[in-house]
């Protein structure tokens, strides 16, 4: 296995709500389940949005008493809210009383077979801390959070070493595959021994760097011959 997929690290026991779920019930669910957000589902089970702690806290941020004090969020905060809410005035969410009125929609979703790299890029691009995992029909499968993505980096060094050793013969195109020695410490892979050419060494390093859970790669390989252009 060259990569870790979302299904390998996602949480499958996911709390969810319907569009008509009252504000208080959503808040109680978040507190009881110790989660920061829940998907909002339509009657057919498809995901239509997500309600997060931030969505609920807008009711505190925009309480009536602050209007009397001319409260207005900083420009940076207003812009962030508008971008996250697709141009919606964040003050309007403060008036919401059901999940449908509070949620951010559409939800940012990911397929279970997507790589953790893809998931991390989606989170960064959309400025979210979690992604809803859905099937081909848009139905809820699970949730993957930033913390879930970190699971790739807490693999045992011995397990990671075996993974790299198995990947080398599967992926390498060079003839002499047994000359590479793999060592792993704190997630950092050291490749030593020898390869036939410089290109083989580069291929081995590239392969190791592409494996999920690898923190870094140190190359200490000796080439049997120098295949750089112009070398006699």
TrEMBL record:
Q: Per the database record, which ranges form the CBS domain?
A: 10-69, 103-160
| Positions of the BON domain | 156-225
Question: Which UniProt keywords are present, listed alphabetically?
Answer: CBS domain
What SUPFAM superfamilies is this protein classified in?
A: CBS-domain pair (SSF54631)
Signal sequence, start to end: none
Its domain of life reads Bacteria
- PROSITE patterns in alphabetical order: BON, CBS
Its recorded name reads CBS domain-containing protein
């Amino acid at each position: 296995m060259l990569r870790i997929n979302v299904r390998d690290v996602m949480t499958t026991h996911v709390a969810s709500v319907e569009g008509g779920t009252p504000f208080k019930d959503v808040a109680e669910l978040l507190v009881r389940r110790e989660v920061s957000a829940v998907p909002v589902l339509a009657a057919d089970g498809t995901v239509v949005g997500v309600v997060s702690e931030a969505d609920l806290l807008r009711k505190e941020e925009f309480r009536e008493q602050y209007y009397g004090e001319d409260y207005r969020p900083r420009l940076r905060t207003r812009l962030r809210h508008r971008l996250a809410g697709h141009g919606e005035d964040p003050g309007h969410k403060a008036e919401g009383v059901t999940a449908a009125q509070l949620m951010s929609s559409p939800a940012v979703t990911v397929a279970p077979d997507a790589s953790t790299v893809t998931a991390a890029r989606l989170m960064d691009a959309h400025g979210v801390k979690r992604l809803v995992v859905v099937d081909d029909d848009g139905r809820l499968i699970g949730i993957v959070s930033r913390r879930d993505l970190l699971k790739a980096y807490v693999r045992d060094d011995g397990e990671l070493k075996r993974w790299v050793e198995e990947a080398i013969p599967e992926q390498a195109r060079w003839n002499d595959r047994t000359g590479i020695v793999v060592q792993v410490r704190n997630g950092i892979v050291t490749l030593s021994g020898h390869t036939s050419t410089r290109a083989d060494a580069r291929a081995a390093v590239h392969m190791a760097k592409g494996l999920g859970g690898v923190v870094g790669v140190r190359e200490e390989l000796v080439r049997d011959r120098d295949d750089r252009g112009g070398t006699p």
